[in-house]
Structure formats: C-alpha cells, structure tokens
Write a structure and sequence with these properties.
The chain is α/β, with parallel strands linked by helices and 295 residues long. It has 13 helices and 9 strands.
Length: 295
C-alpha cells in the first residue's frame, strides 16, 4: 500500500517518522522547511493534496482542527481533486477533531467511494517514539481491519471505539479529564505552597499517596527541573475542551467541572496566546493564587 501523511507538526511528524521506519511515505505540510527535512530522511514531498491522492492508497492526516482537515480534503488542490485518476481509498484522520464534522466529511467521502476512519492518539510525541501511543479508532470494522498493519507499525495499542467519530469522542473524554486533572493538581499544589510546603516535598509525598496522578508523576518533576512536560499548544487543548463541553450540551451532560476547566483554559489563552505551551497554564494558577510553584 502506498501511504501519504498530511500535517507534520508536533504530533504528525512523530507519527510520520514512526511510519517511515517501515513504509515509504509521501508527505505534505504548509511549511516548506518541514517538507525539506522529511525529504532529507527519504520521504517524498507532495505538491498538494490532489497529487498525493493520485499516488496513494491510504492518506493519514494530523492537523490542528477539523476545519483544516476539511480544507485539505475538499478545498482547492485538495485530496478529492486527485480522485478521478487517483488511488486513495481510505483517509485516516488522526486529528483530535470534532466528531460531528468528521461524520459529515465521512458521509461526503463515501459518496465518492472513499472510506474515512478517525484515529486520534494520546498522550504525545514521546509515546510515538517509544511505540506505545494509544490509537482510538472509529469507522467500519472491516476497513479498520484492512489498515490494522499500518496502525500496528505505529503502536500495538490500537482500540476499536465503534462507528466513525467515536475515536474522536473518546479523545475528547480523555482530554477534558486530563485538563481538569492538570488544573486540579496545580490548584492543590498552590494550596501547599501558600502554606509553606516545597514543590519537591509535595511531589515526592503525593507520588506515594492517594493524590498520585499523571501530573504529579510527570508534570511536577519537570516543573522542579524547569523543563517543559508537553509540546502541545494551549489553544489546541482549549479547542478539545470546547468541543467536549459542546458535546455535553448536545446530549444533556451538565459538565460542571469541565466548564470550569474550559473557563480557565480560555483565560490562559487570552493571557498567554493560542500558541503558548500548555505548561504555561501553571503561570495562570500562580497569578490567581498569588504564589509561585518553584522556590
Ligand atoms: P501543530 O500546530 O504543531 O502542527 C500542525 C501542522 O499542520 C503545522 O505544521 C501546520 O502548519 C500544518 N498545517 C496547518 N494547516 C495545514 C494545511 N491546510 N495543509 C497542510 N499542513 C497544514 O499541531 P500538533 O501536531 O500539536 O497537533 C495536531 C493534532 O494532533 C491536533 O488536533 C492536536 O490536538 C493533536 N494532538 C497533539 C498532541 C501534541 O502533543 N502536540 C498530542 C495528541 C494529539 P502551520 O503551523 O504553519 O499552520
């Protein structure tokens, strides 16, 4: 199978590099510099989506938002323009996208004989490098079975979540949970700091106590060293939490805590900008609680 990858940002480039260990890859990104780096490693840069579609059987996409995915599929020079003489039969969307929009795109593609699968991933690029990233796949089971070897060349942690869009629903469930846990951890640690506890003591004790979680285990030790714990834009996490709370409205789940998380992330984006690293949300909690995490 000929494979193409669109979107070589923080997440897409890790996934594409992993695929290149076992496949020849054609690649596309709006940033020319990224394409050149991939070409140096043996990938074939595509001129646009249409030319990629002419050469590939399966195209994977990892872009910031579902609007970007719609643009590369249906926009000018997009994948569908290459379909008349093209080979592409499966589009795999690895974006943490909007499941409702993805289901609409899948229906439009089905009319052209193309099958769409959603397959977002978690937690981040380091897990791709380690071969342990979790892949949440939604779509027709027989198509997922067909492309399973592609997924397995990224990671063996592949989970079938149901119909198209369900992988993205599970990804929203994950991200609203992880964001809320991150913010609760920061708030709790601010309480300790205000009362004279050091970050070092809290990190060690929490990781041996009932409050232990992913953020006490990974974020706090990185914070002690002054190192980033993620390479993920705050604006992209806000996008996920917005989508999760909107999904809650559409199906009647109140999202009491999720909406507080949404508000804090929105305030963080106003203060530090869309492109700020998600770690910078700690600065917002510091300023709201009038404390500093590090001595
Ligand atoms: P980035 O912003 O780092 O990368 C996106 C890349 O796609 C950029 O190079 C961007 O260029 C390019 N791009 C944007 N529009 C187009 C287009 N129309 N055609 C071709 N290329 C385009 O984002 P991430 O890689 O961090 O995130 C991608 C997705 O993965 C998001 O949905 C995110 O939520 C998800 N994700 C990210 C994780 C992470 O740790 N970073 C973890 C798990 C999921 P430009 O910047 O110039 O627009």
């Amino acid at each position: 199978m000929e494979l193409g990858y669109i979107g070589l940002g923080a997440m897409g480039r890790a996934l594409a590099r992993r695929l290149m260990l076992s496949h020849q890859l054609r690649v596309l990104d709006v940033r020319q510099g990224l394409l050149e780096k991939f070409a140096e490693k043996g990938a074939i840069p595509a001129e646009n989506g249409a030319s990629l579609a002419r050469e590939c059987d399966v195209v994977l996409i990892c872009l910031p938002r579902s609007e970007n995915v719609r643009e590369v599929i249906f926009g000018s020079g997009g994948l569908v323009e290459g379909l008349d003489r093209g080979k592409v039969k499966v589009v795999i969307d690895q974006t943490s996208g909007n499941p409702i929009e993805t289901r609409m795109m899948a229906a439009e593609l089905a009319e052209k004989g193309i099958i769409m699968i959603d397959a977002p991933v978690s937690p981040g690029p380091e897990a791709v490098e380690a071969g342990t990233i979790t892949i949440m796949a939604g779509g027709p089971p027989e198509t997922i079975e067909l492309v399973k070897p592609i997924f397995e060349s990224i990671s063996s942690n592949l989970y079938y979540c149901g119909g198209i869009g369900n992988g993205q629903v599970l990804k929203l469930v994950n991200n609203i949970l992880s964001s809320t846990c991150r913010l609760m951890t920061l708030e709790a640690v601010a309480l300790g700091r205000k009362n004279g506890l050091s970050l070092e003591t809290m990190t060690e004790v929490l990781n041996r106590s009932g409050g232990r979680n992913r953020f006490t285990e990974i974020m706090l030790p990185k914070m002690i060293k002054g190192e980033p714990s993620v390479n993920f834009a705050m604006g992209l996490m806000l996008k996920d939490v917005n989508l999760a709370t909107q999904l809650g409205i559409s199906c009647g789940v109140p999202m009491f805590l999720g909406n507080v998380t949404r508000g804090l992330l929105q305030a963080g984006v106003y203060k530090y900008g869309e492109d700020a690293n998600l770690d910078d949300i700690a600065k917002l909690i510091e300023s709201l609680t009038d404390t500093t995490f590090r001595e």
